[in-house]
Design a protein that fits this description.
about 260 residues, mainly alpha, Glycosyltransferase, about 0% strand, Terpene_synth_N, Terpene synthase N-terminal domain-containing protein, lyase, Terpene_synthase-like, terpene synthase activity
Length: about 260
């Protein structure tokens, strides 16, 4: 009487045609982060309904600001610039595009057409939005010999704004190439004589222009800089901070789930 195999899997002796596959063991290095990100999935990371309600109320207030009628177009330009640099422009894309389209259609009618800061800000915001605004708007700031006028040399805010605008240039725009060289030279020469706050802004700009900074890093930095500007709006800043914290928690939860 022969014994039956208790296993349902045929052994190699039972079926010589089946060979055993030897697989190499993986020797992956452990994550350099360890279990750090897994801790983000705790209950303390949950977003409260009170926070969501508060950010919604602030969002509605900020949403009404760009569409409010104002005589000074530069105020709207500064508001749009702040909203973008604080990292919350994705909430108001249609409102921003509507305003910039109106400004673009009105031509160089900013109310401060001789103000270097306003002209440069308008140019940069329109170029960022995809409008092909002409670079010859800066010709008015040149003298008869083709050099930038001496009257703007001490306009730190204007020169810094022109510096940022010049980084929106495309090939063949000689006036913006000249503007970049001029503003870089001026900012480097004056930075040591500026007050610490303005000097820090200038050094940061010389390190990297706005268009090259990562938006979230720029937003985190601008939280401390924005209150020092003339156009500071506390509602906008509070909304931006709350929105930043909520987005950060969402990212932390995503990283925790990926780590698991």
């Amino acid at each position: 009487m022969s014994l039956l195999s208790v296993s349902g899997i045929p052994s190699q002796t039972q079926n010589p045609s089946i060979s055993v596959v030897k697989r190499p063991l993986a020797t992956f290095h452990p994550s350099i982060w360890g279990d750090h990100f897994i801790s983000y999935n705790s209950k303390s990371m949950e977003i409260s309904s009170e926070s969501l309600e508060k950010v919604q109320r602030l969002k509605e207030k900020v949403q009404s600001l760009p569409m409010a009628p104002v005589d000074d177009i530069s105020q709207k330009l500064e508001l749009i610039d702040a909203i973008q640099r604080l990292g919350v422009s994705y909430h108001f894309e249609s409102e921003i595009d509507t305003i910039l389209q109106q400004i673009h259609n009105n031509g160089d009618d900013t109310g401060d057409s001789d103000d270097l800061y306003t002209v440069s800000l308008r140019f940069r915001l329109l170029r960022q939005q995809g409008y092909n605004t002409p670079s010859d708007v800066f010709s008015k700031f040149k003298d008869s010999e083709g050099n930038f006028e001496e009257s703007i040399i001490h306009d730190v805010r204007g020169i810094l704004s022109l510096y940022e605008a010049s980084h929106m240039r495309v090939r063949g725009e000689d006036i913006l190439d000249e503007a970049l060289h001029f503003t870089t030279t001026q900012l480097e020469s004056m930075v040591s004589n500026l007050n610490p706050s303005v000097a820090a802004q200038v050094r940061r700009a010389l390190e990297l222009p706005l268009r090259k900074w990562m938006p979230r890093l720029e937003a985190r930095h601008y939280f401390s800089t924005y209150p020092e500007t003339a156009s500071f709006n506390e509602v906008v800043l509070n909304f931006a901070k709350l929105d930043f914290n909520i987005i950060q928690r969402l990212h932390q939860k995503e990283v925790s789930e990926l780590s698991r």
